[in-house]
Amino acid sequence: MMAFHVREIDWSEFESLLAAQNVDVPIEQTKAWSEYESGIPGRSFWGCVAIEHDGDAVAVAAFMDYLTHRFHYLRSHHGPIWFEAPTPSEEAEALEALRSYVHTRDGKVVFLRLAVDADVDFACHTLSTIPYDTTVVIQTEGGEEGILSRMKPRGRRDVRKSLRECPAEVADETDLAAADFAPYYQIMVETGARDGFAPAPCGDYERLLATLGPEHARVFAARIDGELCAWSIVTISGKVAMRYYAASKNATMRQHVGERLVLFEAESLGEAGVERYDLMAVGSEIAPQLMGLNEFKTKFSKELVHVAPDRDVPVRTAFYGALVRLQHLRHSHR
Description:
Blueprint: E1 4-9, H1 11-19, H2 31-37, E2 43-53, E3 56-68, E4 71-76, E5 81-82, H3 88-105, E6 109-115, E7 134-135, E8 137-139, H4 143-149, H5 153-165, E9 169-172, H6 174-179, H7 182-195, H8 202-212, E10 217-224, E11 227-237, E12 240-248, H9 257-271, E13 276-278, H10 294-297, E14 305-306, E15 310-314, H11 317-333
Parallel strand pairs: 4-6, 12-13
Antiparallel strand pairs: 1-2, 2-3, 3-4, 3-5, 6-15, 7-14, 8-13, 9-10, 10-11, 11-12
């Protein structure tokens, strides 16, 4: 029987352990991100842990405490960060040790929300949010032609059409957005109304840019005749970037602005040393609600990339069971 143990660590040790490993560190597993999220009401930094096997660290995770509907849960975005991919049984045993540790340390935590790849019998589909297990990653090597060569034929056709015909001018507008995010937020509100979601408050985007800084968060934008028509916030951590937020005006959606903007983003990131540009989340069997994203995002790569989806790991099982029953009751009344 393998022996897994969970130990609390500080940010210094967290970063030191990761520096010794050849692994990608998601932006959400950084101290800067924890400082950003701590500015959102109901969220606070809970702590970092090392998951050890027979005394050696095999993974780390940083957790935020979320207070919602008068109960607490912990979230580790894209965590734990495994130094080597675990087997399903190793992952299950590590998660069991983790939830036992959390239960002992903090009795108010109802469940953990974290990335779980294996079909662990005590890990549940998330109560809220839409987990995803599939994404599109653009390899930025080789500049424009290298990026185009790795696209699907339909993607290359659409992007080349955009380069020929799209009237938009594209640029890095990080400084402009940091100085005044209001024009960008107006387009996010329009996008939310079109796509059926409620944007976060404007201050959340402003705080993200201010807290992460231009080293870790860039704003790319497209304008037609000087008028802002589309933009994205891209986060950067090491050699990996993620297209975290994106918005566009209804009136210019058919002018291939999006294709031109994504190509510019990938080129710019490649020039800055980023090797992989993650477009974040497409639809799959576990996330059919996201299928509407596939037509656009899958243009940019011939291959889809699997990622571990978020799952809930109950800590206070009776309380979590009551939340599940309440959710089912609400759905039945709809």
